Amino acid sequence: MSPVLGKPVNRVDGPDKVTGTGRYCGEIVLPGLAYGLIVGADVAKGRVVSIDESAARAAGGVYGILTHRNTPKVANAPHLIPSLAGQPAPGESFFPMQDDVVHYWGQPVALVVADSLESAAHAAALLDITYEESPAVATIEDGRKSAYEAETLFGGLMPARDERGDVTAALAAAEVTVDASYRYAANHHNPLETSVTTAQWDGDRLTLWDSTMGVRASQLTVASLLGIPLSDVRVITHFVGGGFGSKAMVWPHVTLAAMAARHVGRPVRLTLTRPQSFTSNGHREEQEQRITLGAGRDGRLTAIRHQKLSITSSFDDWAEPATGVSTQIYGCDNYLGSHSLIKGNTMTPTFTRAPGESLGSFSLETAMDRLAYELGMDPVELRIMNHPPVDNHGNPWSSDGMADCLRRGAELIGWADRDPTPGVRQEGDNLIGTGVAGAGYPVAFMMPVQHARARIFNDGSVVIQTSAQEFGIGVTTSMSQVGADGLGVDMDVLRFEAGDTDLPNTTSAVGSMGATMQSSAVHNAARTLRNELIAHAVADDKSPLHGLSPSSVRVADGRMTSTLDPSISESYADMLQRNRLLDLEALGSWTPPPFTTPHGLLTFGAQFAEVAVDKDLGLVRVRRMAGVFAPGRVLNPKLARSQLLGGMLWGLGQALLEGNQIDRQSGRWALNNLGEYLVPVHADIPDIQVEFVEVEDDVVGPLGVKGVGEVGQVGAAAAIANAVFHATGRRMSELPMTAEVVMNGGGAG
Amino acid sequence: MTMRPITFFRAGSIDDAVAAVSANPDSAFLAGGTTEIDLLRLGVIQPTLLVDVNELPLTYLEDTESGGVRIGAMARMSDVARAPRIVERYPGMSQALLLGASEQLRNMASMGGNMCQRTRCAYFRDGRSPCNKREPGSGCSALNGVNRGHAILGTSDQCIATHPSDVAVALVALDATVRTMGPDGIRTIPIEQFFLRPEDTPSVEHPLEHGELIVAIDVPDLPVARASRYVKHRDRASYEFALVSVFSAMRVDDKGNVAELRLALGGVGTVPWRAHRAEEALIGRPATPENFAAAADAELADADTRPMNAFKVTFAKRAIVRELSQVVTS
């Protein structure tokens, strides 16, 4: 039992954050710093006809203005690939200001650089830009007729269609079927910190302080677009104010900041405004889904058909993959998952917390609830009964735990006392109901080899390094724990350094893979160094440990001790000093299993919710939530709980509040600030319980860590929708479930 | 450092403030600034002179000779909300104040400023879309745009922007009076005349001369208001504008008839909406759910809806019936 791993250690970077001494990328002060501001296109489709800069330049304080007329051409065309793949990761296959064509509203058409943000804003307002506007396709409704079934997603990385068996025949033969259609509004991420990049050139070498979820992705992308060596690009990020997917890809403003800094011969800070954060770093796309289930009277699923329609940019086949969970969380021989797309005048959508599977699971889990009612079965038992021991390829799960999650969640919410009859519990003006949903999120081994370095000085102090970035999830803390555990030292003597491409490589912390990747590399580095230190000691004839087998040495608190005789021991520091070794270091690496590893790879969980629905006004308030998850080894339950809780709250927001739409007259997002784009406030947050189910996993890395970033969000909205049904008897087929949706019977679907 | 130049003048007296703004057609008063600073930054309003009235001696709250309360224009919303004489005599007004914005904003926002609060219509606030309120004659983007939050009462074909205030809903129900100081001296404006419906001139929201400053709001003595209530229905539990809000003050006589009624609605009107039709339909009638429903129908009979905001008709009717029914049972 490790003295540090799995303990609810407080955040080691907490004091820096709450006292304001932690520097975020928009707080880097450099001599001669200039301030950039992007000017976005005011049409959704068309052409820039003219740009009159005279008034803007005359306003004073302006160092330079970049437009398509003077912006350097990118050295390599951007191609859309997830940053987890460890390649250049522009968010879209498009770079702005290369020509006069406008593809989406808000697309950068100019960048003003000035001596202050205020000067830049004033000059930007004085830029006189005229457009030739063409009719835009900005919503599903605009482009429904041009929908096509995609062959691949993510720039060809994933097939868009997943088919096995004969779903048509199986549905025709099914004793019971459920057919449900859904409409989902677009979501925006809205981390508190909008994206910001500070760029500084020193000759040919570029340093970027970038608020990114992957310093390596920023480095790879900017080097590729600028056509300069990777060794000339350093990316630093010590604190990031949240990402949720909006900082998983490297959007044009990052490279534009570097271009602007070169253009004006000064360091440049380029910050996206809050309205620009709705048009500059992707979104969860507007989408429609339809799911059809076939089952026997015994409740066994025999067919699932899961179809998605969504709108993407004119240059990328992007869709959140919606079928990665529905294809495998319940066993079913006949399955069809497909993604249809409409090309339109939006930017390329992107990862948004629990990408794809959050809405895919909403469809699946509300349909499963319908099926349970059709069959007269308990919704928890129906799920447990259909959850298989193997994935859709017949491979055993690397670790499971789903049934235990469902059972424990049921206990927490008091499921045993539940009368399944919908619409019969009333308190005052409210109808009360409870609901359940299963949760799963794929573990995706698409990253390259991960590295970390462990270094011990001869006073016993330790530095552990990897290029990971701290965007609020607690990596600084949990990796300090992993390093201390692996090396056998106290956390107090260890410092974890990250957020810098000069440090050993780890890939972007996205797709719930950060903890797995980083902990594996850090563990291996710490273990390698520990083994080297022990090897030194047992080979050292002056050491009390001399001659022992390395396997009979244990280490705790920086002291190596014989497992045969506890009186024989020596500290790392003593051994290093005696041998006149100033320090010793080791590089650790972790090679992930192949993408096709013969294991089922999902992180499982279960969500429960209790709601109160205003019987007349349709307003839904969540009264209780309980989430139980099986993410493998939990490095720090306090941090993991925060992550999962945050995910559940995202689910609550997605269920009831969050939704954006494009104004069809202008092609512009209708909501562009936190006053109108609603996220939950404290008063919306109910009593929430989060628990873990322990499962061992020897496939996903040496510590058996699966991620907790996404799975907390999956199923939360579905549990709420199922609770609304239990309360009202109305099936919800739109998100968010606003008052009018609930009043009008659940939505158009 | 360069930016749009604005001259800032902190007025030391009411006369100075009025004189300064009157003398400059591009000037504006600045009170708590909780809306105005936003609009300045968004480029929606572009005054060249800001006359700060925060130092003026207008933060008082005092009884009037006729038994009402006079509220200084610079009294902060949070102070008024918790003032004992407001809580006791006009509890619905206190509730309306406390349900508006957030505590931080209420600590800054003034009562006079609240009367001049601008709409949250996104097309008005974006500074660029066609908007008759911001740029007369340019058109109304909300008519066929994203208008879920827009008004269904008091609309015109020029503008359907919703009036955002909560406390103003209480004040129209209470028949308050707005006291102003202009170049020609003091005048009083009955509050329902203070809020102008858009009609053909949505850019004109109040009957104020340029340079005319709100100095106080008079709330008359109204015994029935001691049992007044304000309920605000919204998507999230706090910090959001109303979908529909209801202010009510009702007295039912011993025969079960409605003897007195003040009813007003927020979230549905282009102005804070006094429900005169519903009041008239109910005064002297039995206080029954059926009559409440008929009164609500009467009030919403002329509702002007669009697909996205049509739900507000049913929503508002149900909110009215529920509110009045609860008053009867409580």
Automatic annotation (TrEMBL), chain A:
Keyword Signal listed: no
Sample GO molecular function, one term: iron ion binding
Listed Pfam families: Ald_Xan_dh_C (PF01315), MoCoBD_1 (PF02738), MoCoBD_2 (PF20256)
SUPFAM superfamilies reported for this sequence: CO dehydrogenase molybdoprotein N-domain-like, Molybdenum cofactor-binding domain
Record key words, sorted: Molybdenum, Oxidoreductase
Highest taxon above the source species: Bacteria
Stretches assigned to the Aldehyde oxidase/xanthine dehydrogenase a/b hammerhead domain: 19-135
InterPro entries xrefs: Ald_Oxase/Xan_DH_a/b, Ald_Oxase/Xan_DH_a/b_sf, Ald_Oxase/xanthine_DH-like, AldOxase/xan_DH_MoCoBD1, AldOxase/xan_DH_MoCoBD2, AldOxase/xan_DH_Mopterin-bd_sf
Protein name, as recorded: Xanthine dehydrogenase, molybdenum binding subunit apoprotein
UniProtKB/TrEMBL annotation, chain B:
Tagged with keyword Acetylation: no
GO MF term (any one): FAD binding
Pfam family, one: CO_deh_flav_C
Keywords: Oxidoreductase
Domain spans labelled FAD-binding PCMH-type: 1-224
Descriptive protein name: Xanthine dehydrogenase YagS FAD-binding subunit
